[in-house]
Amino acid sequence: MVELSSNFLFASFILYLVAILFFGGAIKQKKGMEGDHQNANINRWGKIGIFLTIVGFISQLGYFVTRWIASGHAPVSNLFEFITFFSIMFVAGYIIIFFLYRSIVLGLFTLPIVLIIIAYGSMFSKDITPLIPALQSHWLFIHVMTVAAGEGILAISFVAGLIYLIKNIDQTKKSKKTTWLEVVMFGIISLFGFIVISAIFSLANYTASFDWINKDGVQENYEYHLPALVGPNEWTLVTENRMEPLIELPSAINALKTNTVIWSFLTGGLLYILIRLLTKKRIGQLFKPLVKKMNSDLLDEISYRSVLIGFPVFTLGGLVFAMIWAQIAWTRFWAWDPKEVWALVTWLFYAAFLHLRLSRGWHHEKSAWLGVIGFVIIMFNLVFVNLIIAGLHSYA
Amino acid sequence: MNKIKCECGHVNPHGTVLCEACGKVLVEEEKKKKLLDMRYEGTARRSQTYNRSLVDKIWNFFSSVKVGVWLIVVTLIASALGTIFPQEMNLSISVSAEEYYQDRYGIFGQIYYLLGFHDLYRSWWYILLVASIGVSLVICSLDRAVPLYKALKKQRVTRHNSFLERQRFFTRAAMENANQDIELVTARLKKKHYKILEENGNVMAEKGRFSRWGPYVNHIGLILFLFGIMLRFVPGFYVNEQMWLKEGETKVIPGTDKQYYLANHAFVLELYDEEDGEVYKNAIEEKGGIVKNYQSSVTLYKAVGESLPGEKPELQEVKNYDIRVNQPLKMDHYAVYQSSYRLNEISAMTFALTNKETGEQFGNITIDLANPKGNYDLGNGYSVQVLSYFPDFEILDGEPHTKTPNPNNPAFAFKMITPDKPEGETSFAAIQQTIEPLGENTYKMAFQSVETVNYSGLTVRKDLTLGIISVGGIIFLLGVAQGSFWQHRRIWINQSKGQVAIAAHTNKNWFTLMKEIQAVLAGTNLPIPFDQQLDKEEAKQQGVNTVG
Ligand code: HEM
């Protein structure tokens, strides 16, 4: 059953990959403007692309159901499972918006990001973990699944915002805007960099074991799967012939995970520089031709609409259900745990977004930036808070 | 105040921008603009009308969305800063907070502590921020809701030209016999769930008006929620107590006014093992023991009748229950949660009074560590006195000392009285260790055995604010859904002097409205409205009509 489940996930990965090709073909063929008031038909390539996306989505649901059966509980209890479920909801968000606005270009940008997220998730341990007592509750999946659904829909706002920026930022000269857009691109590439570097060293079977002293003065052991650039507090290298850390971190910081983050940025940086050297263009500039037939008003509305749909869902899952469960499991509905606080930050951010939309000056470009920032906050909560700041919710 | 009389005869209150009846633009400044600001239908809002007294100034400050957004953003940033290092309230530390942050996080920790970020969410300024959001919510909602309600109730079908032509979607064209087309369009609009109002061949179609109340509903929900949180500080609304209950013990439940007693029969901790299934094998191997369950099997008692202080009351059994994580024991408004545990703690120690030379023993004493008694008579002139007790023994500067109050390493000073040493000998005994401070003794207290017991950590909670908080939450969600999933759309079709004017307004999602208008107008001779907000260049690029 576990095997079948993995196969479903793999199949959807391939389906999305092929769908991207069809979406690419679709916008090449398309005449006129996407979101044109007169002409909103989708050509054959586009139809095949969306069909494949839906099949891929169903296949991912297959992964989810079979893994649920295999493990005996909803598969949202560790980092791999949660990230994978988030990717499912990301696609669901796209499908919902597709049926409202029929946008192909949106799919062309959504699916590659989804692929990176799926691959990112599968870098974490795929073991089925038994549930500790606090997680043995129906609220586990009610809460986590609703949060992921909200975040998946909100993420569409990011994609639409990103396309808006790629289309509308003047790439003929370097400016603050082009720089920030490149920073966003670099972030995405670094996520990809994490996948590349982890895959390389796991193929080489690299492990280095470190003993170290934790903040309570007790000895612990870390198993590094990437060469240690930064080492834990008072480390001693146990495995022979392995690289020694360049810097030692204090015990308050998780050295193992920080090391991984550094490697991701290094690899991402390298990839980024390579692309820039080979194409002699900014990444934003590189994608610009793909989006020139996209209606800016439509993008703005998609970005706003997905926040309107995603915000209530996120509130329900990330705050209301979270509070109900916390009241039952941890005796109080709010404990100021970092993960909770970041859910609050996310929520306040989108509340500010909605209020800013009330004034005309915050439509279009500024709104697009806000959509991007919102997603950065969501990813921060998903990646950094889980990895670096540990609290009640730390999965890994 | 000076009222404004419109040419249509309607008398508007001071501060009105658009005539409440016909929509004519009343304010000169507004007439110069190409498009109207339709957000509150041009009604008189207090905050836009008065700005003299202090009350006006405060009112205007808090009713501004700009201020509201700033409050939200500052709260957001502050909240995020509070996660850099753990909050004091989530730590259990024995040293002072200042020391703790400095030791662990160095200079940054020190700064963090000095700025008060270690206890951010209970600091006065954080609470003030949240309270300001609450005040702002009340004022901004009052400022807008009442005028908006009046305006939306008083809608007219026939609108002044100056109103129509300043709508974002607008067109006008000369047209004979438009009535037939208008009828067709009206029918189509009805199918799309628009409500139709007709007056002298003019039409207004409207849908989703109730969504305009969404923000006010959700703000009311938020206000209730914040109010509920404040109630927590009212005595009697909130109880939060901790109790440690060892196996076999019966204790009063703190915070219940001595009404309830709890007996702990057994505490159990279970780990996952092979029997739980093949699928978990890898994870268990990798992580070591994973806790499957911990629970206290308890009996809840209720005290009956009055009892004098210090006296144990008569107890009446209420129920037996297994308290687990996620499954608290509930009674009245109280809930008792399984929150932690201490395993295998020493509860009693047994020593034997022993002659060192002969090895002869003169009886055992068993000391209950919860209640170490002073004197143990062993008969025949042998007795032992406990002089002092150190639960967590260590030697500090040559003196015996206890590190913590927990019995991690218990030690005792005994006085042994025997027939041959009626003065008594002093001996110091710990596990595996005897010290004789006053020279060689004839007798010793030989350590025999320990008894251990499990402690169950329980949290007792009563929270009468939950009801109002939940109601607030539900109202908030309904309001957000109402305002987000529906939009308020209006389409006006007015005829005058052989011309047809079509205008439309929505509070959000203009793109979708345009598509809907195009669909209902398709195949008729009626003109399709332009988006007046696009400039010509943009419009050409997007294949959309514009004016001129
Ligand atoms: C955390 C606090 C707040 C939350 C979660 C919140 C939530 C919302 C939401 C969801 C909307 C609907 C937006 C839309 O449908 O486009 C809204 C509208 C609005 N909010 Fe808030 N709000 C908050 C605080 C405030 C504050 C402090 C003010 C005070 C200035 C304010 C003023 C408004 C106004 C004026 C509207 C528009 C009303 C209308 O369109 O008729 N909000 N709010």
Automatic annotation (TrEMBL), chain A:
GO terms for biological process: cytochrome complex assembly. It is found in: Membrane. The chain crosses the membrane at residues 6-27, 48-70, 82-101, 108-125, 140-166, 178-204, 260-278, 302-328, 340-356, 368-392. It is a multi-pass membrane protein. Pfam families: Cytochrom_C_asm. Residues 265-393 form the Cytochrome c assembly protein domain. The keyword Transmembrane applies. The keyword Kinase does not apply. GO terms for molecular function: heme binding. One of its GO terms (cellular component) is plasma membrane. Its main location: membrane. InterPro entries: Cyt_c_assembly, Cyt_c_biogenesis_CcsA, Cyt_c_biogenesis_CcsA/CcmC. Keywords: Cytochrome c-type biogenesis, Membrane, Transmembrane, Transmembrane helix. This is C-type cytochrome biogenesis protein CcsB.
From TrEMBL, chain B:
GO terms for biological process: cytochrome complex assembly. It is found in: Membrane. Residues 65-517 form the ResB-like domain. It is a multi-pass membrane protein. It holds the Pfam family ResB. One of its GO terms (cellular component) is membrane. InterPro entries: Cyt_c_bgen_Ccs1/CcsB/ResB (IPR023494), ResB-like_domain (IPR007816). Keywords: Cytochrome c-type biogenesis, Membrane, Transmembrane, Transmembrane helix. The chain crosses the membrane at residues 67-85, 124-146, 216-238, 464-486. This is Cytochrome c biogenesis protein ResB.
